[in-house]
Amino acid sequence: MRGYTSGSWAALVVAVLILAPGGVRGQTTVELRDAVDRALARSPQLAQAENALLNAETTRKTAKGSFLPTVSTSAGATIQSSSQFDPTLGQLESSTSNSARASISANYSLFEGGQRFYDLQRSEADVGAAGARLENQRYQVIFQTKGLFFAALATGDLLRVARAREDRARQGLEIVERQVQLGSGTRSDLLRAQLELANSRQGVLQAEASDRAARFALGRQIGLGEPVSPSVPEGIGPRPLPLAEEEIFALAEDASPTVEAAALAVESADAGIKSSRTSYIPSLGMSGGYGWNNGEWALADGRTSWSVSFNASYPIFQGFTRSVGVQRARESYRVAQLQEVDARLAARQEADRALQGLWTSEQAIAIAVESVAVAEEDLRVITERYRVGVGIILDVLASQIALTEAEAGLVQARFDYEIAWADLESILGREL
């Protein structure tokens, strides 16, 4: 990144001191780190990403469970009544019979063409992809929170710029009134000065509304239903990047969460193809059971039995479902590959955009600092010329407006830089 001269840095420090937020603008004051932590704790989008990861882990657990046998047990008791004709007595006689039974059985798939292994591989890749998407969502929430945080800081500074304009307009009106009293000022000068004061007051009202809206938006982001005042974090302003540009590009292409998720999606799709192909391979399984039954309600005696069986199956024809399944898996794999390539290109493009934003904002800060210094000196000279009667009020008003615009430009450039820095961190998925 480009550097500054010592004079530029000195002017920047002076401008920051002039425009730095001062005082509490709301009942609640929050620091940047605290705002980020609160936003992460209450973000619905982050909760959805966490739920997606939980679902992926559940699927992986099911895939691991397919390697274990299924076991079931059952038990029951029966009481049954019956009637039969007794020829001796010449009437129907009723009787009851009791029985009890219990059994346990187990089934285990010995061979399925490797389908369980491929399903486990796919579930592992899905868990990794869900984790990467969760990390990406986390940095998106951080970026959004920082954007609202610095926007609230910026609107506070712009409110101070608007109030400074009002103060200058009031001072200018006082000068014009004295000039009118001395006879060197005109009625038109007085009206123009009064109009500038009215416009400056309107600007203050608009700035106050924008400031409150920005602080309310920050409050909502961190879970509060009230305006929140951000405190100025330490270390803001142009600073050197810890990595070279090519290192940033390489990190974005290979290790950013979006690229990692896309790469793992390719692994999952590849395992899906292999899993679908196993439908052409015969399956082999075994089952076993142990049973007990007794004609009476008693645990003693009774009859026991056991069984073990093996079975093999191969579906000869399934209405083309196997070939369709393989074809769909191949198409999913092709799409995943294209998405991975595009994700890498997009990550590099976004990293370049964020870097250019940093560089542009850094240069804009230097230019804005010089503009503020020039505008302040110009206003001083023009005001003095009008005071001694060799200047006109239009020049004074134009100089006042130019200074206000220069100060607003400095505020915007300062916080554009911080947003670009946070944007780059969200793209890389790491703090710089």
Topology diagram in text:
Elements: H1 6-19, E1 28-30, H2 32-42, H3 44-65, E2 70-86, E3 91-111, H4 115-182, H5 187-221, E4 228-230, H6 245-255, H7 257-277, E5 283-294, E6 303-313, H8 321-387, H9 393-428
Parallel strand pairs: 1-4
Antiparallel strand pairs: 2-3, 3-5, 5-6
Proportion of strand residues: 15-25%
Helical percentage:
55-70%
Q: What strand order characterises the main sheet?
A: 2-3-5-6
| Radius of gyration using CA atoms only | 39 Å
Explain what this protein looks like in three dimensions.
- The structure is a single chain.
- The protein is of the alpha+beta class and 432 residues long.
- It has helices at residues 6-19, 32-42, 44-65, 115-182, 187-221, 245-255, 257-277, 321-387, 393-428, and strands at 28-30, 70-86, 91-111, 228-230, 283-294, 303-313.
- The strands form two sheets. Strands 2-3-5-6 form a four-stranded antiparallel sheet, with no helix packed on it. The chain has a two-stranded parallel sheet with strand order 1-4.
- Helix 1 crosses helix 8 (321-387), helix 4 (115-182) runs antiparallel to helix 5 and helix 4 (115-182) packs antiparallel against helix 7 (257-277).
- The protein is elongated, with a radius of gyration of 39 Å.
